[in-house]
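To whoever is covering the structure queue this week,

Two jobs came back overnight. Logging them here so there's a record in the thread.

Job A:
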Amino acid sequence: TEAPESEATATPAPTAAPTAAPTAAPTVDPNAPTVSVNNVTAKAGEEVTVTVSVANNPGIVSMMLDVAYDGIFEIVKVEDTAVFPGVMHSDDFELNPYRLCWANDTIPENLYTNGDFVDITFKVADNAADGVYPITLSYDNDEWFIYDVDLVTVDFATVAGSITIGEVAQP
């Protein structure tokens, strides 16, 4: 995991050059606690939704995640799936990275929920170039972003997703 280097700010320009084709996903232990974003396809000017999911949750009470994305995207909606209580996501859709937060630090036992946690809908810029744009997740356990009922930090592997714009050659 990587620690955010500074406070989240609005990012009006692209933050990463798109790749011409999808790249192979990193290998993650299939039994490791994992938080991931799916891969989706859209066209310039459309709205598109990505899903943030959790797998192999070993038991936590609170989680904060930063979702970073290219400046050609604008968040228009964040819908929590209500499978994990304590939703406190940022209400500032211009933040990049955008902060997701579930805080349940007063409950008496860990939550072991897995599955789709939140859907984030982006508006793709009308002039978006064809390519594959990463949607990345990060957290900083030096700042207690993910922890359990005993106030012990819990590490999760993060798997980036992507939004593919237009026609992109497959590997």
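Job B:
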Amino acid sequence: RGLSPNVVDWLRTRWLDNLRRSPVVQQSAVMAIAVGGEELPPALHEMAEEMTALGWNLCLAIPLLHREQLLGVMCLFARQAQVSVLHDMVLLGSIGHQVAAAVTNAQLFQSTMSERSRLKALIEASRDGVILTSTEGRVLVVNERAVQMLRLTRAPEDWVGAPFVDLIAAL
């Protein structure tokens, strides 16, 4: 069952801000907010009341930490508090670290692809001939200007992956 957009917005604006500032989350610990459970910090009393109004009795707040940086908080809600869930806090903490690593890797991949695209555009627009080769002697990049300057008969993309010696032999 999905949550309404209003509830999602409420969770994002009210809950996550409070959880991020929570000393427990700041210390990298999984936090259980159980309605009627042990004493909650004052900042979380209102959250517990709001949980009750929505029919939730347990929220597990799992910090998404990567290299000591808090990326966010993953919240798991339950209508009934289960003792076994509370005993799995270490496992949930590990899952939080794995999710944070996956998010960081996705961000790094996106950044790399963006830089690659930018570099490719710069090389293609260059008035200079550009040829990049690998340490194994294969052509990685060749722009149109290099093909024109060297009077090569094949298109730039046809040279990518070819041995550099083949390119030299075609001169």
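Note for Job B: The two ends are 66 Å apart (CA to CA).

Please reply-all if you pick these up so we don't duplicate work.
Q.
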